[in-house]
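Aim 2 progress update. The chain analyzed this quarter is reproduced below.
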Amino acid sequence: MDIAYLLWLQNLREGIGPTLDSFFNFITSIVVGPAAIIVVATLYWCVDKRAGWYVLTSFAVGNNINQTLKDFFCVPRPWLRSADIHPSPAALGGATGYSFPSGHSQTAASIFGAAGWYYRHLGVWVLPLAGTLIVLAAFSRNILGVHTPQDVLVGMTVGILSLWLSSRLLSWMEQKTTAPLTVALTFMFVALALMLYTVLKPYPIQGIATTINVVEMQKDAFTTAGLLAGLGVSWWAEKNFVNFTIDRSNKRQIILRVICGLGLIASCYVGILLPLKILTQSGFLYKFCTGFLLVVAGMAGGPALTQYIEKRQTQHTTDAR
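Predicted structure tokens:
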């Protein structure tokens, strides 16, 4: 039944032409592309620090649960199950590894769901808007032929579950009895356990599931584990050494924080991750550091750099007087 549904959508997509294909590939790119990351980072730097922690925690928790489920069930992609399925070529780049659950659907629910739930007090339109974005992202994976209905339904469920888990987790992190170092060590321990699981567990040795590149799947798990470890270390570093506040009336500070944050993330990628990618040939260390370093640079490094520049400017002004 799931393949029949995908074939019906495929006929619809091919009948309408490239416009529909391009639209839903655009929707997909919003969910996991730079735009979503920039929105989350800007929320954290400039609008509401706690909201930023909540959304990013939801994203990291949801990603790790989803990736673990992928590694556990080892479900092949739709076009491997049926030669009649012809996925959109533009969507194949983001459709590597196992199929169940859908990572894009989970990411949409984790990010847009968390933002919608956190800001639901702003009006009755907030949750419907978040829900529309989530459903669009999930449906795009069906109509592009890269996921079955059950893939996206469970992916969205994982994302919604991450909202509740992250709310409880953030409440624990904020307790006065919870030391920031405890948070960092807990997150790092869980990340290590997840990496060991994905490396040590057995994978299918017969059937169509064997066509999946297991090593690439394991590398994806290292990236999501890096996100979780980076989140814990960022919490420790920010609480102990930065502890920035947001003054929305200070436009200059807001602009400086965005420039420093994005600039540090870009510098980290170009100066550390790209050379590491070449040296390790996109190996496990590179994948882990991608998740880890980009989170630390954005959550702790960017605000710290902003404070350093502001302090130097203030000192320079004082000396000039």
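The mean pLDDT is 89. DSSP finds twelve helices and no strands in the chain. These observations will guide the mutagenesis experiments scheduled for the next reporting period.
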